[in-house]
Amino acid sequence: MKEMTKSIGLIFLLCLSLTTFAQTRVDALRCELLHNPISMDVLHPRLSWNINTDERNVVQLAYQVLVASSLEKLDQNEGDLWDSGRQESSNSIHVSYAGKTLRSRQKAFWKVRVYTNKGDLPWSAPASWTMGLLHYKDWTGRWIGFDRYFPTDNAEEGRLSARYLRKEFKTEKKVKKAMAYIMGMGLYELYIDGKKVGDQVLAPSPTDYTKNIKYNVFDVTDRLTEGDHALGVILGNGRFYAMRQAKPYKVKTFGFPKLQFQLMITYTDGSTETIKTDNSWKGTANGPITANNEYDGEDYDARKEFVGWTNAGFDDAEWLPSEYVQEPGGTYEAQLNGHMKVMRDLVPVTITPKGNDRYILDFGQNFSGWVKMKVKGESGTKVMLRFAESLSDNGDLFVTNLRDAKATDHYTLRGGEVEEWEPRFTYHGFRYVEVNGYPGTPTKADFVGRFVYDAMETVGTFTSSNTLLNQIHQNAWWGIASNYKGMPVDCPQRNERQPWLGDRPVTAYGETFLFDNTNFYIKWLEDIRLSQKEDGAIPDVAPAFWRYYSDNITWPGTYLMIADMLYRQTGDIRVLQQHYPAMKKWINYMATRYMDTEGIITKDSYGDWCFPPVSIEAGRGQIADKKYPSALISSANYYYLLNLMARFSALVDQDDDKLAFEKSAEDMRMAFNKRFYNAEGFYGDNKLTENILALQFGLVEEENKTRLQSQIVHNIEVENNGHLSTGVVGIQWLMRTLTDMGRADLAYKLATNTTYPSWGYMVENGATTIWELWNGNTAHPKMNSQNHVMMLGDLLVWYYEHLAGIKSADKAFQTIVMKPEIVGDLTFVNASYNSSRGLIESHWVKSKSNFEWQVRIPANAKAILHIPAKDLQSITENGKRIQNNSMFNVLGSENGRTTVEIGSGQYQFKTKL
């Protein structure tokens, strides 16, 4: 067979990048650890690869994986850890390592050889991973810190001064390898010989520290030459020492900041040494970070800096011996999700003087992070930075919607030369900054807005002929990224910032088209599982930093929906296998406690949370924090989740469970219709959300479906005057339900409305992210975030799957359904999505009578295209008719579309409409 010009991309599950070579290569795109490639504690990592080629109809027939203990052995094609042998399989994702048992700190090198229908490919370039510390006893040091207050602490406000810890040591031989392992609670910065290790910020990712603790690993070999060295660690509060201490019944706190660390050195002569945390370390709380708190900000007094404290030879005679402290209690786990990092810098758009040494910076964009400042002045000069999302009518900061979060940083100048400063252990959600007390006249060059979120690749693009759709997509991107903080938080600005489950049941699904967030949501699933009570209860917030176990369906049910999303988008069955027992325990718990004698789930906490007031004036000044529990909503969602569990049961080989869940679902459907269906053709109180749920979940009887669809249209067009009326529950299903019932035109109208309530209304009123409330410009500020994601619902899913036509028909896009909706005044859509199987592209252009469509399908996948065309004869690809062309499998024509199956490759279709 002829040689192909192609490449292969290696993937572990959670991803690492590899070098490539000319015509055939392996790029590690996903592996067990994307952003921390030198440590994992997964004993059977999943290996995956992509075949990257422009040749069409490429299908994998077989593969062989080699895993070796050294690169030299791998180069000699010796898989001393694992040789899979030739496996006759088309599977190229999540191939489980099945070799020898791996040890702590062991490094493994791997490569793959692929056999395709177009020829056999040579071995890929190598990739590697390193095991972490797999056992508790691998940690030889002890936890150190100071489990007590210092005079510089403010216990009442929950603001501690940072803890500084240091240790000097000497290397007397040449270093071959040096690895640093650190658990710094709640947040840390690590320094060696005066330089910070890594570019991460706000590390590690937050967890319930009594359940699990994430450790980070760094290769610091190049830092250690022969001679004297010093280690320095700064500890901040993070979520460990809670931001608020006044309500212990509600807010979970874990204690004072503390550290477990070890530096494991291997010398060139084969000997080893470990520098670990013990009482030989010195510490102090009397440093320049005099207060830090996620809600309230950071105070920094540059006059108190310890010059050279992370270098050898520093005089720490006045520092205290570190103390052994109680360990947090959670298991130690390598952090596989990415670190938070400074991902982008912004410059102020304007600086407006406000008198009394005050200036307002406008960055032109709502985002989360902080400001880096340059300043020069006299020693002791104090500069205050206050943060807010919007301005009051008089041009001052509007901070009422922050509740009691102070969102303020203070910097006291050292004096002398120009000073640069940015905080370490706080972040803010803001567009505007008030600068108070700045010496001289500030300029734009003196300030940089630092956008901070979890380091992850943007994998989706979307543009269209409709500028409003594009702006909403951009606002969504900024809002989603702003709320990635090691867990999905609801908002980045006020005194909340909690990982509410109810914000993301479907919204997270849409996020997957924008960000490579697989590891992020795998981590969150584990947070949810570990927050489950022994009886099965799941909280509304996970990790349960707030003790909210209200027992409802829609919030905890997100657990099942995120697992489903991850399986469908990535194809990793392990997600279901690991979480199935906990999901089963919860769904049975809810039935046991809250199902009445007629089979209805009676317990609900929130109803259709934050549905819009009937008019913008009706909601003026009104508090949105109101609950309207609904047995219809809880029962409808329970029915949907029962069907999910039935499908999960089949996938994890629990056939008896499958039958039981199917029976329970059918019983619920009958009870639901008996209780909530009205003979006039609607459900419950005839609210849009109630009707949407019944239709989308398949609760409605077939003979009543048409009437229900008509009622939904009446809800929108007549009762709502062409607008939506859904809260956070209904919005998760609205756009797809309308499209599935043949009214994509109505969905498009909702997506492009600019009057209240709509996403476009937010844009028309200056939003640069997504509001928490549809009436965010008039609602009471008590609960009125301007940077939320929950009201996105299924909008982004609709963008990519329905407007662009990029939808997985089965697990992980092995078969792609492409059925773009040609609606409204749209004349083009151009979208791409870098899936686990490779890049998918869809670019269509519509004129009065013609339709042009460019698509890209990754190798080892296929697509079912629904091509708009008046007839088969009018369809050409690259200038040639597809009729009677064996490359195109024509499946039929219906409703102005011709259905065609194609293999991988790039295609250019033209049709007559």
UniProtKB/TrEMBL annotation:
The keyword Signal applies. Residues 1-22 form the signal peptide. Its EC number is 3.2.1.40. It comes from the Bacteria. SUPFAM superfamilies: Six-hairpin glycosidases. It is an enzyme of class 3 (hydrolase). Residues 805-879 form the Alpha-L-rhamnosidase C-terminal domain. Residues 356-453 form the Alpha-L-rhamnosidase concanavalin-like domain. Residues 173-342 form the Bacterial alpha-L-rhamnosidase N-terminal domain. It catalyses: Hydrolysis of terminal non-reducing alpha-L-rhamnose residues in alpha-L-rhamnosides. The keyword Signal applies. Keywords: Hydrolase, Signal. PANTHER family: ALPHA-RHAMNOSIDASE (EUROFUNG), ALPHA-RHAMNOSIDASE (EUROFUNG)-RELATED. This is alpha-L-rhamnosidase. It comes from Sphingobacterium pedocola.
